[in-house]
Amino acid sequence: MLCQRFYIIGFSLLILLVTTTYAQEKPLKDLSRGQEGKIFFSSTNNPTFKSILTGGSPGEHVTIFGTLSMPKNTSAKVPAVIILPGVSGATDHYFEVASALNDIGFAAFVVDSHKPRNIQGASQAFKNLAQSMRVADAYAALKLLSTHPGIYKDRIALMGWGRGGSVALFASSEKIRRSLSRGDLRFAATIVYYPCCLRQVRNIDFTGAPILMLLAEKDNVTLASICIDYAQRANASGAGVKFVVYKDAYCAFDFSSLSGQVIPYPALSDFTKCKHKYLQLQDDGTWFCPYTEKRADNLADFGDLTADCKVEGGGIIGGPEEARTESIGEYQAFLKRIFNLP
């Protein structure tokens, strides 16, 4: 018991130390000196999408950070990709992606929205890290990278996984862009791995930049069928959304650490029976649930919406190695084509 008490006290002090350390870091307003590596910058804790779309209080300012890596052996300007990790935060996987992007001539900026806010793991992120906060982080990162002398400010793409993929889709909304970005600054392209399309913008108003969805056929956490429907409706409205579905793949099939494995992952929920219980983000930033015909200002108010359709046993992750390698080739070809690179 005494050891446990010391452990709890020690862990609490560690969290306090981490909080104090980040709070004392001075956020950079620009990257005019061509900085690389770990970079602290300012964002806002936007509590809801309503606060974004109606010009309400953006919440308190917060210092977050990202890690910027540049391609080697080049002095020319390069395009860039802002990386939004999934619900578990900035794990090694995303730095592997950054390195691979560097190898094909892109700068890569892995944004950590979790650690600066003391979010530890997926369960805390679901409860305490609103997607509206991460959308604000994405645009703060875009504004920052646009000042780097080695990066084309009009050739910055956004890439997200799972919950980060959902954030990337929200950030691709023209209404949201106008609320968070001055002038014509926008993401030049968006790539998403298995986003949660159960939450969607009602009026599909993408900025016009091309979007690539990489989906998993057997995903029981972020359902491919709903994203396909979403993409098809978006294309019918004039958007440019391409989707690719990988056979026998589940959520996180592109993680090299799984090496072609398929394993249960109880930390995620099985939502295969929830496909009719989606939520729509309205033009005024409120949420509407067609299933219950209820409205709310905050997603937290719909916390019990999917309680009766979750399947016992949790999520499944992984998939064939060929799906992983094919998806990498797909998004690299997409980026090269968009930015006219060899």
Explain what this protein looks like in three dimensions:
- With 342 residues, the protein is an alpha/beta fold.
- Helices cover 32% and strands 23% of the residues.
- It contains nine helices and 14 strands.
- It has an eight-stranded mixed β-sheet, with helices on both faces. Strands 7-11-12-13 form a four-stranded mixed β-sheet, covered by helices on one side.
- A hairpin with a 4-residue loop joins strand 12 and strand 13 (294-296).
- Helix 5 packs across helix 6 (163-171).
- The longest helix is centred in the N-terminal third of the chain and has 23 residues, at 2-24.
- Mean pLDDT is 88; it is low at 1-20.
Question: How many domain modules?
Answer: 1
Q: What is the straight-line distance between the termini?
A: 62 Å
Q: What is the H/E string?
A: HEHEEHEHHEHHEEEHEEEEEEH
CATH architecture: 3-Layer(aba) Sandwich
Poorly predicted regions are 1-20
User: How would a crystallographer describe the biggest sheet?
Assistant: 8 strands, mixed
Gyration radius over CA: 20 Å
Q: Classify the beta-strand content into a percent band.
A: 15-25%
Keywords:
four-stranded mixed β-sheet; 9 helices; alpha/beta; 342 residues; globular; Rossmann fold
Draw up the topology in text.
Layout: H1 2-24, E1 37-44, H2 49-53, E2 61-69, E3 78-84, H3 92-103, E4 107-112, H4 121-128, H5 131-145, E5 151-161, H6 163-171, H7 174-180, E6 189-193, E7 199-201, E8 211-216, H8 224-236, E9 241-246, E10 262-265, E11 279-281, E12 287-289, E13 294-296, E14 315-318, H9 321-338
Parallel strand pairs: 3-4, 3-5, 5-6, 6-8, 7-11, 8-9
Antiparallel strand pairs: 1-2, 2-4, 10-14, 11-12, 12-13
